[in-house]
Every structure is written in C-alpha cells, then in structure tokens.
Specification:
18 helices; Isoleucyl-tRNA Synthetase, Domain 1; 509 residues; single chain; alpha/beta; 6-stranded parallel sheet
Length: 509
C-alpha cells in the first residue's frame, strides 16, 4: 500500500563550496527518495540553500558583491552538482525566497504573541563562523568548541525563545520515541545534553542586516538557525496548512551531518512544540568523511571535490562507492585506491561480468532470444528463493537507512549468480541436445535474477540500472510490480552486454 513520504537534506550554506560531505547527504536523500518512488510511494524530497546570516554578508562584502548576488552565484554550484550527480529532488528551497520569508515571519510572530519569544539583552562569547553564542564554561582554551576558532564577547539587545520551558516535553518525547534520533549513539548524546538543562535561546541579531527582519522591530534580524530550520515547513507551503503541508508533514526523516544534530534534535523540535506543530518522525545524523585518515581542510588541500570524482570515475561509480564503503551513521575515510578497488572488484568483476556472461550465453545458445523456463530443480529453486528474499532484505535495510547493507544484500545475489553458473555449467549442457530445456531453465533463472537486481539498483545507480535492464530486454520503468519473479517473458530479445565498468589500472590512477 502506497503512502506519502517526506525526506530532507539540510539546506547548505552559500559561503561554502560543495564538497563530498554535501554530496553524501544529498545522495542518501536521493537514493531513499528513488527507492520509495520505486515502491510506489508519493515522495517529496527537499534540498536547498541557506542564504542569510553574518558569514554571507561578510563574504559578499569581501568580494564586492551584495549578499544576494553572492547567494545567486553560489547556489548554482550546488544545483549544478546535484544535476551532475543524478539527484532528483522535488523542490529546491532558498531562504531568500518570498515564500520562505512569509513562513518564517508567521511562526516568529505567533511565538511572540503567545509569549514564547520575548525581548531581552544578551552577553556572551560569539563564534561568527558557527553563528553561535557560547558560555565561558563551554569554550575550549578560549575558542569555539565546535570549530576551534576565536570567539568575541558580544552584548546586544536580543529576542529570546523560551527553550527552557520545553525541556521536559522534549526529554519525554525522546525517551518515548527511540527512533526519533538516530543512530543510537547520537540519541544518547542529545539526551545527555537536554538533561544538563536548556537555556532560553537568543533568536535575533542587531549587529548585521542580512536576514529576515523581526516582525514589528526591523532593527533585529531573525537568528539564522530559526530562519534556516523553518525551511522544512515553508517549502510545503506553511503557514498554509493544506496542500503539501497536510500531505507530507511531519517529515519522515531529516538527513543531516552529525555537526548540526543539536540544532535539529533540540532547537527545531522545541520551535515546533511552541508553534503547536507535529515533530519530525526521525532525525538521522550521519558521520564525517576524512581523507587518507585526515580531516578535510582547505589548508591541507585535501578537500574532495565531487565534480572531479564524477568526471574521473563516472557518476554511478561515485554513487555506489559513497553508500557502499561506510555504514551510514559512522565516519568514513575516502581514498582513491578504495574507490578504484570498489570499481574493479564490485562493479567490473562482479556486477558487469555476470551480466556479460549471462547475455553472451543467451546470444550464443539461443540466438539472443529468451527461452521459456522449464521445471525448476533443487539448485534453481534455491537460487530463485535467494533472489526473491533479497527484495525483503533490501526493504528492511532501507527502512533502517542501512544503505551499505542494502547494497551488500544485492551483491550477495550477484555472487550467487556467478556461483550458479559454475555449478550448472551451461557450456557443458550446451554440448548435449537432450539438455536444451535444462539449459533454457538455467539461462532464464540467471536473466530473471539479474532483472530483479537491476530493478533495485534503480535507486542507487539509475544509469547502470537502465543499461542492465535494457540488455535484458526490459523497457518498462522499474516499479514494485516488476519485483516479482517470472516477469521476464519468453521470446524477449536479449542483447549481449558491453562492459558496464571498465577496469581501472591502479598504478596509473
């Protein structure tokens, strides 16, 4: 039974250049969205850019642009990368869009009117890069505990959100909903933070102008995180609670990097509680990518640039590697040698070789026409059962956002296919005219199993999926209906497959 499914990435800050971390989160969202569409769900997949705040204003001033000119220029980098990476989002929201500003002003006004936002004065240590205030005790060696940069003492008039008033409600919600924050280690981290006590949160600034004005007091602009987090509902049409908002809120999963977990698992839920809106079903914080064991940084010149990876290795190889190499939720280490190894081993040797062998034999023994399947023997039934069980295994792993395990389940069937060939020895069957029907059954089982494999791969590697299904004579769009054994009709034309992934010489690379 189909249902509505809503998945989001963070909106990416426009003073940054898209890197592998941005690509990783967005790719995970795309794969989840594609899989849900494949299974028949009505999906809304949101990404976008965060374009307000002091950092953007400073960056624009430094290059002689207005903040909006900088935002217009930089957001195109993200959007063009998503097109290159094969990302199929439903909407791309920008916080400078009028629809977003209207929604943010509405929720801010509501919270002011009901007394959850009040005017006061704030003095503390401020980190401009993180757009965050810190207390003296939170600083590490006098620096920001998140980014290790210098902070400055700021005192300014500010509007405050009564976050402290929602501490117990948030705590109760987290404890009553074990899947609300994932993975479990991050849930424990947030529980500990909330139990320490929540302070009221400064939600406006007067030291810069680039932001959404506070309704009724335009000397203040709304704090960038209050502004940015609201994108998840403004993109659905909020404050209109009909339409997409009625269909898709609450969100099924916010996909984020672990560095912004507190904003999504503490600030955002309390804002929603105050506004009387349902809370997200799940916030999933994935790990960081290091490079050859070192943290990515501009000074080390080791930032992995996704466009370069795609140009060098191909989009589907990059998509496969990022979600197969590391369990989603853990930190991972990127290296070119690991990527090349995945291409040569998993994609060229396993996936591509099995399709090549299968289609070549159907062309050699049956003139490129799929023969009818005869009675299945014990070995055939076992192979068929494994192939069908893969569908349920992948479904369970996708429910858990365990992308690497889902791919592992698919690759187990690819390995089983190569083993099936070795055990049934079609080349021997082909020598005996009396074994023609037996040979046909083996060929059918091989082709049909791979049709299931390439149907599921539509979520992960769309271009490769289309190629594989094309060689197997399947022209229909991948769907849940296609995930049933026996849909490959006798008489279908089977084309001999070319190499899907040519091997790469590691020494050259």
């Amino acid at each position: 039974m189909s249902k509505n499914f809503y998945v989001t990435t963070p909106i990416y800050y426009v003073n940054d250049v898209p890197h592998i971390g941005h690509a990783y989160t967005t790719l995970a969202g795309d794969v989840l969205a594609r899989y849900r569409r494949l299974m028949g769900d009505r999906v809304f997949f949101l990404t976008g850019t965060d374009e307000h705040g002091q950092k953007v204003e400073k960056a624009a001033n430094s290059v002689g642009e207005t903040p909006l000119e900088l935002a217009d220029r930089v957001m195109k980098r993200f959007d063009s990368l998503w097109a290159k990476l094969g990302i199929e989002y439903s909407d791309f929201i920008r916080t400078t869009q009028e629809r977003h500003k209207v929604g943010v002003a509405h929720i801010f006004s509501q919270l002011m009117q009901q007394g959850d936002i009040y005017l006061g004065e704030y003095e503390d240590w401020y980190c401009t890069p993180c757009e965050t205030f810190w207390t003296e005790t939170q600083l590490i060696d006098g620096k920001c505990p998140d980014c290790n940069r210098l902070v400055e003492k700021l005192k300014e008039e500010s509007y405050f959100f009564k976050m402290s008033a929602y501490q117990e409600r948030l705590l109760a919600h987290i404890e009553a909903n074990p899947d609300f924050i994932q993975p479990k280690s991050k849930r424990n981290e947030i529980l500990a933070f909330v139990k320490e006590g929540l302070r009221d949160l400064s939600v406006s600034r007067t030291t810069f102008n680039w932001g959404i004005p506070v309704p009724g007091n335009e000397r203040h602009v709304i704090y960038v995180w209050f502004d940015a987090l609201s994108n998840y509902i403004t993109a659905l049409g909020y404050p209109d609670k009909g339409g997409n908002f009625a269909s898709f809120w609450p969100v099924d999963v916010h996909l984020i990097g672990k560095d912004i977990l507190r904003f999504h698992a503490v600030y955002w839920p309390t804002f929603l509680m105050a506004a009387g809106l349902p809370l997200p079903k799940k916030v999933f914080a994935h790990g960081w990518w290091t490079v050859e064991g070192q943290k990515m940084s501009k000074s080390l010149q080791n930032v992995v640039e996704p466009n370069m990876l795609i140009d060098r290795y191909g989009v589907d190889a990059v998509r496969y590697f990022l979600l197969r190499e590391v369990p989603f939720g853990l930190d991972g280490d990127f290296s070119h040698s690991a990527l090349v190894n995945r291409i040569n081993s998993d994609l060229a040797n396993d996936l591509g070789n099995l399709l090549n062998r299968t289609t070549a034999m159907i062309n050699k023994y049956f003139g490129g026409v799929m023969p009818p399947c005869g009675e299945l023997g014990e070995i055939d039934n076992a192979y068929r059962a494994k192939s069908v069980a893969m569908i349920g295994s992948v479904a369970g792993h996708m429910e858990d956002l365990a992308f690497s395990k889902a791919l592992q389940s698919i690759w187990e069937i690819i390995s089983a296919g190569n083993k099936y060939i070795d055990e049934t020895a079609p080349w021997t069957l082909a020598k005996d005219p009396d074994q023609k029907d037996r040979l046909a059954t083996v060929m059918y089982c091989l082709a049909e199993s791979q049709r299931l494999v390439y149907t599921l791969l539509a979520a992960f590697m769309p271009a490769t999926s289309a190629k594989g299904l094309g060689y197997l004579g399947s022209t229909a769009a991948p769907s849940a209906d296609a995930l049933a054994w026996g849909r490959l009709a006798a008489g279908t034309s089977i084309t001999k497959a070319e190499a899907l992934f040519p091997r790469i010489e590691e020494k050259t690379e």
